[in-house]
Amino acid sequence: MSQPAIELFQVTKRFGQKVAVNAVSFSVQQGEVYGLIGPNGAGKTTTFSMMCGFLYPSDGTLKVMGVEPTAPGALKGKLGALPQDAILPPGWQVGTLLTYWARLSGLPQPEKEAREALDKVGLTEAWAVQTTALSHGMAKRTAMAQALMGQPPLVLLDEPTAGLDPRVAAQVRQIIRDMKGKQTVVVSSHNLQELEELCDAAAILDRGTLAQAGAMSELTGQQAEFRVQIARGEVLPPELTQLPGVKDAKMEAPGVLLVRFDGQNHKPEEVISRTVGHLLQTGVLILGVSRGRSLENRVLQIL
Ligand SMILES: Nc1ncnc2c1ncn2[C@@H]1O[C@H](COP(=O)(O)OP(=O)(O)OP(=O)(O)O)[C@@H](O)[C@H]1O
């Protein structure tokens, strides 16, 4: 496997007595979309700020694209970042500001990059608008355009869809989807459905510590459990546990059968088909089958 895009090993950040991030370790592979999840105050923005090189870790090792992000110029041209509360300077037109930033980043065709990035975020018409005249959503998209200019190999987006209307939020999600496989993207959001849909893997933080990190399919139990919605008939869970691959079966709620299975040694489609087949044979009628659980359920379970 190639070198990870980001590697944290026992990273801690203290602000005086306050431990904002506590011995956190995880890595982000190149080309993946990686989610940072956690309730308010969990340490997401602090982690982002360390990845961007805005803050020094108090302890531990952090490598971004193979270098320490705080080393001067280490990530120039390699990193695009949308900070959580990006504030645009007053007294600039959007296009002029983006062009200026593109020039600062050393991009060879600054105005072209600025126009393309603004198009990408759906703000073509804002080129000559003063930054102070932008709505919150427009300012956020301008800041996002800045992060995308020059197509850097790593893009860090702290709550990119917060405060955007649904149509624009969908557009931003599409931009992230389009980057998958070509650029590495780290994204934080409180919208867990959005992260479940977008991310290949994620880290869940809770009060500064790492609660869990892994592939999205692991976090959502795709290889470990499924639910069967029962319309009618009597389900006998002990019979189901005799089926190959089934570890446990129980009625989770009226009409909802939860089956846990051994996804290491058995293919999910085979275990699901066997279970459904058995239920049908015993006269049980089924309304639906769903694999895994939602990321939201998982997060609520562990936090
Ligand atoms: N500069 C600072 N000085 C002191 N404490 C800080 C500082 N920055 C963050 N903290 C504290 O560190 C903890 C983590 O904050 P952080 O902003 O990283 O959380 P977050 O997960 O991004 O939260 P949110 O979802 O609300 O944005 C919080 O308790 C916060 O009060």
Span from first to last CA? 32 Å
Please write the string of helix (H) and strand (E) elements: EEEHEEHHHEHEHEEHEHEEHEH
| Rg over CA atoms | 23 Å
What is the mean pLDDT?
94
The CATH superfamily of the largest domain turns out to be: P-loop containing nucleotide triphosphate hydrolases
Q: Remind me, CATH topology of the largest domain?
A: Rossmann fold
Profile the largest sheet. Answer: 6 strands, mixed
Q: Which strand order do you get reading across the main beta sheet?
A: 5-6-7-3-8-9
Structural class: alpha/beta
Bound ligand species: adenosine-5'-triphosphate
The number of distinct helices, counting runs of at least 4 residues, comes to 10
Describe this protein's structure.
Belongs to the ABC transporter superfamily. By secondary structure, the chain is an alpha/beta fold. The chain has helices at residues 44-52, 94-104, 110-120, 136-148, 166-179, 192-198, 216-219, 237-240, 268-281, 295-302; strands at 6-15, 18-28, 33-37, 59-64, 79-82, 154-158, 184-188, 201-206, 209-215, 225-232, 246-253, 256-261, 285-291. It contains 10 helices and 13 strands. α5 (166-179) links the parallel β6 (154-158) and β7 (184-188). The protein has 2 domains: 6-219, P-loop containing nucleotide triphosphate hydrolases (Rossmann fold, 3-Layer(aba) Sandwich), CATH 3.40.50.300; 225-302, Alpha-Beta Plaits. α2 (94-104) packs across α3 (110-120) and α3 (110-120) crosses α4. The protein is 31% helix and 29% strand. It has a 6-stranded mixed sheet, sandwiched between helices. The two termini are 32 Å apart. It binds adenosine-5'-triphosphate.
